[in-house]
Amino acid sequence: MGASIHELYGEIWAKPDREFAGDIIKSLNPRNPAMLYDEFSRLGVKADAEVLDVGCGDGRHAVEIARKFGCRVVGVDPIPLQIEKAERLISHLGLGHQVKVKLGCIESLPFADASFDYVWCRDMLLHVDLTAALAECFRVLRPDGAMLVYHLFATNLCEPAERARISNALSFVIESMSEEQFETAAQKVGLAIVKKDKLDSEWREAEIEVGDRTLLDHLLCVARMRRADATLMKKYGEVRYEVTYVGLLLGIYQMLGKLCPMVYMLKKPA
Predict the structure, then answer these.
(1) Which domain holds residue 180?
(2) Tens of pLDDT along 72-104?
(3) Phi, psi (deg, nearest 5) at residue 14
(4) CA distance 182 to 129
(5) How many domains, in total, are found in the chain?
(6) Which end of the chain, C or N, has fewer beta carbons within 10 A?
(7) With contact defined as beta carbons under 8 Å apart, do 65 and 53 qualify?
């Protein structure tokens, strides 16, 4: 429903509603990224648990899981440089007895069936085929094992051209950006969805509310990059430009509701 020009200039903008203005600046008490560990704890993770961190990157989450829960963690990642970074971090913290990392990909995990009690999967399923990836997670989970997934979805506010640009720039599988496709894949491989938590723009709001200006800096960079695109592309190349530009858009699109992060708790039947 839209407003007429008379309503705009004679009522809505001419006579601001102070109560409404007050309501829209109130905090909605957004959660921050630390809430993922709280959610993981609700799965009942104990010190004798074996946890797999798929797409472990530089190992920071694997290390934090080991520290918080006292459990053993194995991280796997397909990028050699990330494994090197993870090994350095683990060695620096003296956690080599508790955290291990291994080169490998989620579509073909280098582990035996039923090797782990839990799987931690944060922000990496966008790069792979969902059915193949989740089937492997199902395989390496022990019966009654559980999986935490943090995943970013495109919403109906994200135009097809925007989805395609994000997919092309960041090596996302465009089908994996679909909430429906994710849930279908999980159920197809035998994983039950026991909890679904829509985060929306919470993490981004939480950053701003504590004075973190990262998102504002990203917005400013996007504006500057857009205005200087030809110069930047000529100097640094189109690929670097596009990867950087689209990467900066991710947080902005979350604030606009075009992208929506969600947390899932998945369970392998006993």
Answers:
(1) 5-155+173-201+259-267
(2) 999 999 999 999 999 999 999 999 999 999 999
(3) -80, -30
(4) 10
(5) 1
(6) N
(7) yes
User: Cα(224)–Cα(222) distance, rounded to whole angstroms?
Assistant: 5
Distance from chain centroid for Cα 87: 23
Domain membership flag for residue 74: yes
Token duo for residue 199: 């985060």
Per-residue pLDDT band for 16 (boundaries 50, 70, 90) equals: confident
How is residue 161 written in tokens? 């051209």
> Taking a C-beta distance cutoff of 8 angstroms, is the pair 137, 268 a contact?
no
pLDDT tens digits along 174-222? 999 999 999 999 999 999 999 999 999 999 999 999 999 999 999 999 9
d(CA 265, CA 188): 16
Calculate mean pLDDT across residues 121-141. Answer: 97
Helix 238-256 to helix 229-236 angle (10° resolution) is: 130
118, part of any domain = yes
* Amino acid making up residue 194: V
Domain contains 246: no
The CATH code of the domain that includes 29 is 3.40.50.150
Give the 3-state secondary structure of residue 3.
coil
Q: Is residue 106 part of a domain?
A: yes
Task: Return the SS3 of 219.
Answer: helix
Calculate the alpha carbon distances from 93 to 25, 99, 196 in Å: 42, 10, 34
